[in-house]
Amino acid sequence: MIASYNLKTNQVYLFSIPRDLWLPALKSKANAAYQIGFPEKNGLGLAKTVFGNVLGIPVHYGLRVDFRGFVKAIDVIDGIEVVVEKPFDDYLYPIQGSESDSCGNTEKEMEFNEEEARKLNIEPGKRVILITKENQIATDSAEEKKGMKYFSCRYEHISFEKGSTKMSGAVALAYVRSRHGTNGEGSDFARSKRQQKIIEAVRNKLLSLETLTNPQKISDLLETLGKSVDTDISIKEAIDFYKLSKKISSTANFILDDSAKSGLPDGRKSLLVHPPASDYGGAYVLVSQDDDFSLVQEYVRKILGGEITEYDATASARTRN
């Protein structure tokens, strides 16, 4: 997610970049950018560069908070108030620490020919796989929904009702991480909208009198973030950002998907499209209508320049036509 602050109007623009966006420069999805640069101790720098290139704007500062820090930070400020607009259930929410649980299935070495391997989305040859009590191959690699059938012990059911609710750190994390929600909440775009909602709720809580007048909370928050954050923001700059945050007049949220209704050249229906999965090794990806992201960059320029003022977010992306 990229935030752009207009110093003249005190408006913040939040741009969510889909995790499945294909980055030609890295030959990988957007969600791998940080990890690709991490071995060279440049995960944050690489992410800033590639995402800045996608949007066509410089990214001056970066901040990455791990899941543990996210949960603890929200708990330190005694939770956040969030308005859930669309209720949903997720029956495939991963249980932390159970990702590799065999769930009672047994290991067996088998050899697969090319046709058998293709059906299971695995490499041909000898492989150690898991077999169920019914002597079925237990794999969730070919079809994600099979995960519940063969590996139910890896998942739990989470549910969110419509309306205002106070969320703890763990609940807020589940709300933003859920990827298999019902009621239209199972897409990456719906997930991005929920993430933006949580960021806004955290900001509101941080600027509340309840937090600002409690030195212990502020001290605990700084200690928590210090252990869980990768950033190039100095203490002085962080203080400056805090002062700016109190002046924010409004926040405009944008998700890169197919929701643009104006500002695109004739014949263009969306910013991103779904190419055939076979073109990317069977992976589900999103690509820009232009390989150099020029369409996305022009759209972002018009948003920041005030030429586009209406935006109707959706939770889907068009297929290439």
Automatic annotation (TrEMBL):
Stated name of the protein: Cell envelope-related transcriptional attenuator domain-containing protein
Family: Belongs to the LytR/CpsA/Psr (LCP) family.
Pfam families from the UniProt entry: LytR_cpsA_psr (PF03816)
InterPro entries in alphabetical order: LytR/CpsA/Psr_CW_biosynth, LytR_CpsA_psr
Start and end residues of each Cell envelope-related transcriptional attenuator domain: 1-207
Gene3D superfamilies: LCP protein
Organism in which the protein naturally occurs: Candidatus Daviesbacteria bacterium RIFCSPLOWO2_02_FULL_41_8
